[in-house]
Amino acid sequence: MATADQWLLPDGIEELYPKQATAIEALRRELLDLYQSWGYDLVLPPLLEYLESLNTGMGNDFKLQTLKVTDQLSGRQMGLRADITPQVARIDAHGLKNEGPTRLCYAGSVLHAKPNLSGSRSLIQVGVELFGHANTDSDTEVIELMLRTLRAAGCTSITLDLGHVGICQSLLEKSELPEEQISRLFDIYQRKATVELDDFLGAHVHNQELGNILQRLPKLSGSAECLEEARQLLSVYPEAITAVNELEVIAQQTKAAFPEINIYYDLSELRGYRYHTGVVFAAYTPSHGQAIAKGGRYDDVGEKFGRSRPATGFSTDIKTLVNLTQYRANPVSKIFAPSDTDPTLRDKINSLRNAGEVVIKSLLGQKEGANECGCDRQLVNRNGQWVLEEL
Known about the structure:
Layout: H1 18-37, E1 41-42, E2 48-50, H2 51-54, H3 60-64, E3 67-70, E4 77-80, H4 85-96, E5 102-111, E6 122-131, H5 136-153, E7 159-164, H6 165-172, H7 179-191, H8 194-204, H9 208-216, E8 221-222, H10 225-233, H11 238-257, E9 262-266, E10 279-284, E11 293-297, H12 301-304, E12 311-317, H13 318-325, E13 334-337, H14 343-354, E14 358-361, E15 377-382, E16 385-390
C-alpha cells in the first residue's frame, strides 16, 4: 500500500472533526433528554453479536445490509448491527420481561454493507420503541416524538407519509397467491409500476373484484379524501376498513398536536412488509431526497425471541439531521489560565471545572494566548487572588 493510501477510509465511512462531532453529540444529548422526559429508558445494545440473534425476525433486505465477521473464540459468525431496533425488541422480550407497556430509547452507531442514497454506510441511529400496547395511542405517541425530534434538529416543512401494511395484507389473504408471487406483487407496488401491475394481476389474480381492488390500490394516495374512497372500495373487507380507520385516528391526533404538518396517505405503502404489521410512517422534507426518519408497528418480532409483544417505534440518523439542518451546539464559554505553578491557581481551576466551566491551561512554552484558544475570559492574578476577567 502506498503511503498516501494509508490514510484513506473505506467508501461510505466517515470520521467526524470537532465542529461536526460537537454538534452531533449536543443533538444526541438533547434528544435522549427529550425521550427520557416522556418516560423512555435508555438502553445500550452491543455493536457486535451473533448473526442468528441479530437477524431474528428481520427481512432479507436487512440481512443483506449486515456486515459479517467470524468470532475468533467460537468460530461462529457475528454481525455488526445495521439497525438497533431488533436488538431493543430482544431486550424487551427476553431481558426485561415487563408485563405492561415498556418505553425504551437508544442512540448508537450502525454500519451498512451498502451505502444509502447519500453515500454513507456509517450512521448514528437514535430512536424510541414502545412495547406492550396495541392501540393507536402508542403509534401516535411515537409519531409525535419523531416529529419533536425533527423539530429539535431544526427541520422545517415536514411531510408525514402514512400507510398501513394491513390493508394490502388483508387483501392478499384472500388471493391465494403463492409466496413467490406475493413478493413480486409487493415489489411492483413499491416501484409504482402500474403497467407491470396490470399484467401481473391479469395473469395471476382470477377473482375479478379482488383484481380490480388491487389494481386501484396504488391510486389511493394523497390527501384525506382518499380514505373515504378507500372505504367504498374496500367495503367487503372489514380488516382493511379497520386499518383505514386507524390511519384516520392517528392522522387526526397528530394534526391536533402539529397543525403545520402536511400529511400524505399512501395506502399501497408496503415498506418492510415482512417486518411491519400495521401502520408505517416516514417524514420527508423538500431539501432531502429520501425519508429523514421512519418507523411503524412490528408486533411479531418479539415472538421470535420467545415472547410476543405489540411494538411500535421510529428511528433516524443524527448525522443526516445535523448535515441537513446545519444544527449547531450552543457556543461554549472558555476560560484561559496561565502556565503557573501557584497552588491557589490549581485550586481555582479545579473549582471552575467542577462547576461545569471549560478551562484551558496554557502549556509551558506555549505562544498562543487566550484569543488564539477561543477563550472569552481569563484568570488573572490581582493582589495575590486569581480572578476572572472578560476579554
